[in-house]
Design brief:
The protein is an alpha/beta fold. It has helices spanning about 20-30, 90-100, 120-140, 155-160, 200-210, 225-240; strands at about 5, 15-20, 35-40, 45-55, 60-70, 75-80, 100-110, 145, 150, 165-170, 190, 210-215. Strands 6, 7, 8, 9, 10, 11 and 12 form a 7-stranded parallel β-sheet that branches. It binds S-adenosylmethionine. S-adenosylmethionine (SAM) binds near residues 168, 192 and 217.
């Protein structure tokens, strides 16, 4: 059954209006019709099994048949990602959502994409939100991951309160597995550097904020590869990626 994320406030009644992108996707792209069943989710775990009751030229409505709460079985990871060049952040948002990331915090670092190139443009934030929403829909996640606006590394570090904080640092000597406890931590923050790597001062600030520098071994991975690889390892070890929890 096709599923769509809609805003929470329209999901409360016995009928749901179908408009904008949701209407376009189901009526125009998927050519669904009156009588077809769909799932509508609010992105916070509420799920409604609905039946399309009416479709007009620009909108329609669906009747709610059943509603329930779903939890996200993915291990909650907060990815602190130094902004990569080009549109690689789109790829990180898409694959990170599929792999179960709970929150994305894009970062400015000394060697990341400069701040002026990525001013908080509403358009970019809307695009990023669309990428995450489409990836969550496609991968059947009940929750929509949060995407923060890009901020300086120091500001993001100051707000971190996760139980376990890991910084991927190719100059670190401690191997990842030695920093992973047997029992899953309540929450985890994963800090990944830019194409040019962290500078010494950034590494010091991160360690001062409780981040443990860990190495992934002898090969130097691209920023996006490093984040995906560790997320998959963590989801397998503590989450639902082909492990006991899934
Ligand atoms: N210093 C790297 C170089 O010599 O090319 C540049 C940084 S690397 C391309 C991008 C980021 O991925 C790093 O900042 C780090 O966070 C992570 N990373 C890549 N390979 C890693 C490894 N073997 N161990 C730990 N982190 C790694």
């Amino acid at each position: 059954m096709h599923r769509f994320f809609v805003s929470a406030d329209i999901l409360i009644g016995s009928e749901v209006p179908l408009a904008d992108e949701t209407y376009h996707h189901l009526a125009v792209v998927l050519r669904l019709a009156v009588g077809d069943d769909i799932l509508l989710l609010d992105g916070n775990g509420s799920v409604c099994h609905c039946r399309i009751a009416d479709l007009q030229k620009r909108g329609g409505r669906a009747k709610v048949l059943q509603r329930w709460q779903e939890t996200d079985t993915a291990f909650p990871i907060h990815l602190l990602q130094a902004l990569p060049k080009g549109d690689k952040m789109d790829l990180i948002l898409q694959k990170g959502t599929e792999l179960g990331i709970r929150q994305f915090s894009p970062l400015f670092c000394q060697r990341s994409v400069p701040k002026k190139a990525v001013e908080r443009s509403e358009q970019r934030c809307r695009r990023w939100q669309r990428i995450v929403s489409e990836a969550a829909r496609q991968s059947r996640r009940p929750l929509l991951p949060r995407v923060d606006a890009p901020r300086e590394l120091t500001k993001v570090l100051a707000d971190c309160d996760e139980e376990l904080r890991l910084m991927l640092w190719e100059e670190g000597s401690r191997l990842l597995h030695t920093a992973l406890p047997d029992v899953a931590p309540a929450s985890l923050a994963l800090l990944v550097g830019p194409e040019g790597g962290f500078n010494r001062e950034e590494a010091r600030q991160a360690m001062e904020s409780g981040f443990q520098p860990v190495s992934l071994g002898p090969r130097i991975l691209r920023s996006e590869t490093a984040g995906f690889a560790v997320t998959a390892i963590l989801q397998h070890r503590y989450g639902d990626l082909g492990s006991a929890g899934s």
